[in-house]
Amino acid sequence: MARRLSPALIAAASLALAAVAAPTASADHGPASGRALADRATVYGATARYQVHANAVADGYVPDKYCVFDRVGRTGALGYPHFNHTYDNSVDPAKPAALYYEDDGRGGKRLVGVQWLVYDRDQKLTTDDDRPTMFGTAFKGPKPGNFPGQPVHYALHLWLWKKNPRGLHETFNPAVACLPGTTRP
Q: What's the predicted TM-score (pTM) here?
C-alpha cells in the first residue's frame, strides 16, 4: 500500500523549516547560515513526495537494483541510488541528480538522502578551480567516473531524510546498511 503525503503537510514542513532558517540569516553562506538552511528547506519540500518510491520513478529517477556500500573504508552505505540524469550539473536545491533509498523492512524503499553531481569543466583530477558549493559546503572531488562513460565530477550528498552520525554531507552513512545479497557482485 503506497503512502501519500498531503500537499498541505509538505507545504507546512517547508514553511516550518524556512521559518527556522530566518532568524539566523546573515551575509554568511556557511552551513548554518540562513541561506543554507532555507536551501535545505527547499530540498525537503522538493523531495518530500519521493517518500513514496513510485513518485520518484514516475518523475524520472531510475533505480539501480544494487545497494551501494563503502567497499574501501567499510564506513556505511549509500543505499540504492536512483539517478535522474536530467539534473546532472544542477546546483538547484530542488533538483538533485540522485535520490538514495534503503530497504524499509516491509519490502519497500525508504528515502534517506540526496546527491548533486556536477561535471568537472576540464576533466582533470588534478585541478579544482571550478568546484561548486551548496549549503555553504564545497562539493567533494573532482572524482573519476563511477561507471564507464561517467565524466570526472564533483558530488555533494545530503542526508536529509536519515541522520548520518558522521555528518550531513559525508558520502557514506553508517546508519544505512545493505541487506545480504543486494550489493553488486
A: 0.83
